[in-house]
Amino acid sequence: MTQSYFVKTFGCQMNVYDSERIGELLEAEGYAAAPDAARADVVVLNTCHIREKAAEKVYSDIGRLKASRRPNGIKPVVVVAGCVAQAEGAEIVRRAPAVDVVVGPNAYHRLPAMLRGAGAVDTDMPVESKFMQLPPRRAVIPASAFLTVQEGCDKFCTFCVVPYTRGAELSRPADALVAEAEALVAGGASELTLLGQNVNAYRDVTTTFAELLARIAGVRGLVRLRYTTSHPRDMNDELIAAHRDLPQLMPYLHLPVQSGSDRLLKAMNRAHTRSSYLNILDRLRAARADIALSGDFIVGFPGETDADFADTLSIVREVGYAQAYSFKYSPRPGTPAATMGEQVPEDVKDARLAELQATIGETALAFNRASVGKRCDVLLERPGRRPGQLIGKSPWLQSVFVVSPSAKIGDIVTVDLIDAQPNSLEGAPVILTRAAA
Ligand code: 5AD
Ligand code: SF4
Predict the structure, then answer these.
(1) What is the dihedral of CA 222, 224, 230, 234, to 10 degrees?
(2) Is residue 30 classed exposed, middle or buried when 0-12, 13-18 and 19+ CB atoms within 10 A define those classes?
(3) For residue 413, what are the β-bridge partners?
(4) Which ranges of the chain have pLDDT less than 50?
(5) What does the alpha-carbon distance between residue 253 and residue 232 come to, in Å, rounded to a whole number?
(6) How far is the CA of 160 from the centre of ligand 1 (A)?
(7) How far is it, in rounded angstroms, from Cα 422 to Cα 361?
(8) Does ligand 2 have an atom closer than 6 angstroms to the CB of 163?
(9) What confidence tens digit (pLDDT) does each residue in 67-120 have?
(10) Is 2 strand, coil or helix?
(11) pTM
(12) Which ligand is nearest to the CA of 343?
């Protein structure tokens, strides 16, 4: 009988991409997609280790799965993949004996063999890339698709586990990426988001990241191109110029700064200052005046004072982020900041997080309000809650609600932006520019 599988994804978009590839891999082996974890014979938890809360979630899921039975009375096979698998390895099986397989983010091409019984734990970081051994991309692809071009991080921010869980920076060959981009567009994608832990550190022999963007922008049928996540240190002139020169490259950039205080940026080993970061934004705006900015922030990093935090609030206002993600500092085992003195009390972190999120909410609403009156294209990605309503993304990555009886998911509609909320806008359709096949 056909075995079924379900992949549950935690964490970042790189995990979303890996989950897609794990699904393709299992389907190539004859597994069928199950509608949810409760009905799957094999459940893959593709995990995140970035903060303690994310890492702990997986154990509550394992607990729930352990107690569950399929209709035929059989227990599901539980696979832990992703960054918790990499960081904790065999420890996971010791702590949660219900787990059958542990496979790291660089070894999941071996998952089918492991399911056949060839080893329960594999957290190797093989030199030969898993990408060479994965089956081709699916025939049907969403309108907006991800493409991992780079993995790993050599930056060693003092708070972050990524350099340990995902290993050193590694870029995929440019020719393979252009071929994968062509396959994704042929399968139905109009928009591609190039992914990497440090995507703008991409380099393949002589191909720079800006050159890769230009090559992928040239793929026939590709309408929109984005990339995430970037480090300020790798935001060079050539890449900034790409924002001026490539019409497919959308006017949006996620460029984390983490803190507005130079003292903390130094303690975080960020290798940029507040002013060098702001200078990059000035140059980006000179290249592409309407670029929308997004960032990541940490509150309560060890030693953070009220004055440091005030610097963070002021940089949020100064930049006027269109959106931003903010987190309470979470000490991660093995990272330098975890053992620094002056850990900030939890209640102080809570208060700062609330204040920061309120400030980000204000700048995001101001950004959305300033968009009202603009005409733009929206790529429709999913149904809305109300009948006839569809939700898509503007060029500035805002969620836009559109009511258009003739439009369907995958279409690009031109709209007038007529109303703004903190997290979304309403668009009145003007013309349907392209219908999906
Ligand atoms: N605690 C809190 N937030 C963290 N991030 C990374 N490590 C930690 C940590 N230990 C945040 C950073 C990063 C984002 C992906 O997660 O802001 O940019
Ligand atoms: Fe972590 Fe810093 Fe690397 Fe980003 S740049 S993945 S925050 S170490």
Answers:
(1) 70
(2) exposed
(3) 378, 432
(4) 435-437
(5) 11
(6) 6
(7) 6
(8) yes
(9) 877 777 788 999 999 999 999 999 999 999 999 999 999 999 999 999 988 778
(10) coil
(11) 0.93
(12) 1
